[in-house]
Design goal:
It is a single chain. By secondary structure, the chain is mostly helical. The protein is built from 21 helices and no strands. 76% of the residues lie in helices and 0% in strands.
């Protein structure tokens, strides 16, 4: 057999027709993604142009020769072509066409007659109102896509931590811009809060993801207390998860929520049996956890009822505070001692007593009874008469009467 007749084939190679079919499938799979990217780019460009248009209005008069108007007229034909092909953006495409018509009408009114002046003012007002409406539609679409992506990524078990952290940071940044009723309705409709709470409670998730979820929950509570505070209190799962995590970030979020929700949240912490956990964290080896636990305890002391303060004392809080403010405790550890002092461990007994005295969770008689218990426990925790005298003076500073 001649060499020309010998044909060597690779048994692992795909036929050219198969390779072509595979490439075609890949291209077809990428088409929706590329189309989505094109639509997003067009909407972002439109949003910026419309924002500039509203910002550059002077006395309800639109300058038809401004760079913003020129940029819009150049962008509108290309954007309209792309947006008209997307079913849920057909209304937006019509609004853009209407805006272009108004701009062209304004350009045709360039003489200086009285009626032209009046007509220019009317059209300028219509342009600004329509631009604001279109910008609102674009922002609502971006919000919807962002919330859907957030829920999808957090519920997807195969998503990596970086992806989850990225969408959580984006969500927190958006929520922190201020109240928006449309965004609130979207968050409630997509059940964003239960998704965040489930991530916070999931011990199999990384600490970083759980902490970012906790921060997002706090951002929602600040976003609208009347709506999302009720979700925080419902079931007590959020506070229980924050206390159980016992990290500096989780305690900061818990302290923030106490400041927002006040006595109701402190009551829930007590009902869940989490008060001893928080007291225990004030003795953590991690200085940041120790400091944030102290801040949380002080907020609880201000808003807590007498049952809460009694539980704190029974858990050995006074002994811990006396120990924390001792000079040898502050001075041991070199560089850490200065940080301890800066974080306010010195004089923490007096600070706790002052929070109880000025707090709103107890009446005058209850405060007096608590004061006697605090004095007794502080004396018992003292290692010398001098220390006891100093602490008693701190506790007696001011009056509960």
């Amino acid at each position: 057999m001649g060499m020309a007749a010998m044909v060597t084939t690779n048994p692992f190679s795909l036929p050219s027709s198969s390779l072509g079919h595979h490439s075609q499938q890949t291209a077809m799979a990428d088409e929706p993604r590329q189309e989505t990217q094109r639509v997003s780019q067009i909407l972002e460009a439109l949003s910026k142009t419309l924002h500039d248009l509203q910002r550059n209005i002077l006395y309800l008069q639109v300058d038809v020769n401004s760079p913003t108007i020129k940029a819009f007229l150049e962008l509108e034909p290309r954007s309209n072509t792309i947006l008209a092909q997307v079913p849920d953006l057909s209304q937006l495409s019509q609004l853009l066409a209407r805006l272009k018509t108004l701009v062209n009408n304004l350009k045709s009114l360039q003489n200086y007659s009285f009626w032209s002046f009046v007509r220019r003012r009317i059209i300028s007002f219509e342009i600004t109102a329509l631009a604001a409406s279109i910008a609102g539609e674009i922002k609502a679409r971006f919000d919807r896509e962002s919330m859907q992506k957030l829920v999808h990524v957090l519920q997807e078990s195969v998503s990596d931590d970086d992806k989850k952290l990225r969408v959580l940071v984006q969500f927190q940044r958006r929520i922190s811009k201020g109240f928006d009723r449309g965004l609130q309705d979207l968050v409630l409709k997509l059940r964003v809060f239960p998704v965040l709470e489930s991530i916070l409670r999931d011990a199999s998730c990384s600490t970083a993801v759980r902490e970012k979820s906790a921060m997002a929950i706090a951002a929602l509570a600040r976003f609208n207390k009347d709506v999302f505070v009720g979700l925080v209190l419902m079931g007590g799962f959020t506070t229980r998860a924050l206390a159980s995590m016992g990290t500096s970030c989780s305690l900061q979020v818990l302290t923030c929520l106490i400041k927002l929700i006040r006595g109701h949240l402190v009551d829930q912490i007590q009902l869940n049996g989490d008060t001893p956990k928080i007291i225990g964290l004030s003795s953590s080896e991690d200085i940041s956890v120790r400091a944030t636990a102290m801040n949380c305890i002080l907020e609880m002391a201000y808003f807590g009822r007498h049952e809460v303060i009694e539980t704190m004392i029974e858990c050995g809080l006074m002994e811990k505070l006396v120990c924390l403010q001792r000079p040898e405790e502050l001075d041991c550890g070199g560089a850490e001692s200065e940080e301890d002092k800066a974080l306010g461990f010195a004089g923490c007994v007096a600070r706790f007593a002052l929070q109880v005295e000025m707090g709103e969770g107890m009446g005058t008689d209850e405060k007096k009874r608590i004061k006697m218990v605090m004095l007794r426990r502080a004396r018992e925790a003292s290692v010398s008469e001098a220390e006891a005298a100093t602490i008693v003076a701190d506790l007696l500073w001011g009056s509960f009467s």
